[in-house]
Design a protein that fits this description.
By secondary structure, the chain is of the alpha+beta class. The chain contains four helices and three strands; from the N terminus they run H-E-E-H-E-H-H. Strands 2-1-3 form a three-stranded antiparallel β-sheet. The protein starts with a helix and ends in a 6-residue tail after the last helix.
């Protein structure tokens, strides 16, 4: 019972590990000066109220007080597929022997020989147990 439960927990943990290791995220941050205004993961950040006034100020001073930072967390994108021809000779032999050992495990069992398969039962004319008054108790 404990082994089955631990097996299920381990399987779920590994599936989450694979899912999160290949997941890529983009985190957007909007700063107004040195103050963090908004953080967004799947959507765009909301701009602060200073953004409208800043356009006019930027024309004059050419310096913006608001800034956006984008952090990209890349997942594992290295999913390499190779064909059988790309393998070394040792790897081919190992793979073939591994495959062959498991194919031989799944061979069907020989048909079981039943010696009395075509034997027909004798016809009962009288019930011998009742005639002899032998009953099973």
């Amino acid at each position: 019972m404990k082994i089955l439960l631990s097996h299920k927990i381990f399987s779920v943990a590994l599936s989450f590990l694979v899912m999160f290791s290949t997941l890529s995220l983009t985190i957007e941050k909007h700063f107004c000066g040195d103050v963090l205004i908004d953080v967004a993961i799947f959507t765009e950040t909301e701009k602060c109220a200073m953004e409208a006034f800043e356009i006019e100020q930027e024309k004059i001073t050419k310096i913006s007080c608001c800034k956006d930072e984008i952090d990209v967390l890349d997942g594992i994108n290295l999913i390499a597929t190779t064909s059988f021809e790309d393998l070394d000779e040792i790897q081919k032999q190992l793979l073939l022997s591994y495959f062959n050992s498991y194919v031989n495990l799944l061979e069907s069992l020989p048909n079981l020989v039943v010696p009395h398969k075509d034997y027909s039962q004798p016809l009962l004319i009288k019930d011998i147990q009742v005639l002899d008054e032998v009953y099973l108790i």
